[in-house]
Specification:
Blueprint (H helix, E strand, L loop, with lengths): L12 E4 L5 H10 L4 E4 L5 H8 L4 E3 L4 H6 L5 E3 L9 H6 L3 E3 L6 H16 L2 H9 L5 H4 L10 E5 L3 H12 L3 E5 L2 H5 L3 H7 L4 E4 L13 H4 L7 E4 L8 H9 L5 E4 L19 E3 L10 H17 L12
Parallel strand pairs: 1-2, 1-3, 3-4, 4-5, 6-7, 6-8, 8-9, 9-10, 10-11
Helix pairs in contact: 5-8
C-alpha cells in the first residue's frame, strides 16, 4: 500500500499498536464504527509509522520516538499500568495519557502471594527434590513456615499494594505500608526502623528517582536471616548483586522476583543459579484473556474520551 497516497477520511483516526487476532479486529471495528482504525500488524514498519503519524488516538505502547514525532495525537491509552518509558513525554502535557491503573492489581497481588507461599512452604525445594527423585520429608516438613503472625512490610500503598494487603491480612499477617510520596520525600529513618522487624518484604512501587536502588546494601542488611523478599513492582528497586550475595550466604531465607533490572534475564545471569531465589519472569500480571480484557477497557474508555472524560488520566506531574 502506498501510504503517502492514503486519504484518511474520519475525524478520529485510531491506531492499534498491539497485534490482535481477527476476531478482536472485528470487535474493535464494530465497536468504533464512526472512526477509522489502523492496525500496526497490517503494514510494514515504515508504512505503520507513517499511518500512525496521521492518527489522533493510540491504543498500545509503541516506541517513544513514534509519539514524539506525532503532531496529531490527542490521547493515548497505554496497555500497561507502568508509565515507563513515556514519563518525559507525559510531563510535557501536550498529549493526554491513560494507563491501566488497577487493571493488574488482582493477578499481581496473587503472584506476590504465590511467591510468599512458595518460599514458606518450600515449593522450590520440593520441585528440586522431585527432579532428583529424592525423598526429603525429614528436612522439608519441619522447615515449613506460615504467614499468620508475620510482620509484613509492603513498599507501595497503591492499588496493587492494597490488594496484597487484603490477601495477606486474610491469612493473619500483620501488614505495614510504606512508600507514599510523603514517605519517600523525607528522611527514610522510618523505613530503616520498619525493615529491622520485617519478616516479609514486598515491593510494589512504581519506578521513580527515589525508588531506584532504594533497597540497597544497607537496607537489605537490616533484614533478618529469616526474612523473605518479594518484588512485583519494578526491578530497579533492589540491588540484585547484594541480594544474590545475602541469599547465597543464607542471610535471607529466600526471594521471589517477578521483575528484575534487566529483562529478559540474560542466560549468563547469576540470578538463574541461586537456589533460594524464584524468578517470576515478569508474568505476574497475566490473566485469562488478558488482551481481550484490555480491549474491553479501551473500547469503554474510548467512548469516555469522545465525551471528554477518559478514565485513568495520568497527570503530567506523575
Amino acid at each position: 500500500m502506498n501510504v503517502s497516497r492514503l486519504t484518511i477520511m474520519s475525524s478520529t483516526n485510531v491506531f492499534i499498536f498491539p497485534e490482535v487476532p481477527d476476531s478482536e479486529k472485528k470487535r474493535l471495528k464494530d465497536s468504533l464504527p464512526e472512526s477509522s482504525l489502523f492496525f500496526r500488524q497490517d503494514y510494514d514498519d515504515m508504512e505503520a509509522k507513517q499511518l500512525f503519524l496521521e492518527c489522533n488516538v493510540l491504543f498500545g505502547n509503541p516506541p517513544p520516538d513514534w509519539i514524539e514525532a506525532s503532531g496529531q495525537l490527542k490521547w493515548v491509552q497505554l496497555e500497561s499500568a507502568g508509565l515507563d518509558p513515556f514519563q518525559e513525554i507525559i510531563a510535557q502535557g501536550q498529549i493526554r495519557f491513560s494507563n491501566l491503573r488497577d487493571f493488574f492489581s488482582r493477578p499481581v497481588a496473587e503472584t506476590a502471594l504465590a511467591g510468599i507461599l512458595a518460599l514458606y512452604r518450600n515449593v522450590h525445594v520440593l520441585v528440586r527434590s522431585a527432579q532428583q527423585r529424592k525423598w526429603d520429608y525429614d528436612s522439608i516438613r519441619p522447615a515449613g513456615e506460615m504467614v499468620e503472625g508475620k510482620n509484613i512490610l509492603i513498599l507501595g500503598p497503591g492499588s496493587i499494594g492494597k490488594m496484597i494487603e487484603k490477601l495477606l491480612t486474610s491469612l493473619g499477617g500483620q501488614v505495614r505500608m510504606f512508600g507514599s510520596r510523603s514517605d519517600l520525600s523525607g528522611p527514610l529513618d522510618k523505613l530503616d526502623e520498619l525493615l529491622s522487624t520485617t519478616d516479609i518484604l514486598v515491593g510494589s512501587l512504581p519506578e521513580s528517582e527515589t525508588t531506584i536502588g532504594l533497597m540497597n546494601e544497607k537496607r537489605l542488611g537490616l533484614l533478618s536471616d529469616q526474612a523473605i523478599v518479594i518484588n512485583v513492582g519494578r526491578g530497579s528497586l533492589i540491588d540484585e548483586t547484594v541480594l544474590i550475595r545475602l541469599l547465597r550466604e543464607n542471610k535471607l531465607r529466600g526471594a521471589f522476583l517477578d521483575v528484575t533490572w534487566e529483562e529478559p534475564i540474560p542466560k549468563e545471569s547469576e540470578l538463574w543459579e541461586v537456589p533460594n531465589l524464584i524468578l517470576g519472569q515478569h508474568a505476574g500480571g497475566g490473566m485469562p484473556n488478558e488482551l481481550g480484557r484490555k480491549i474491553d477497557y479501551f473500547i469503554q474508555n474510548y467512548q469516555a474520551f469522545k465525551n471528554g472524560k477518559p478514565a485513568n488520566l495520568v497527570p503530567p506531574s506523575a
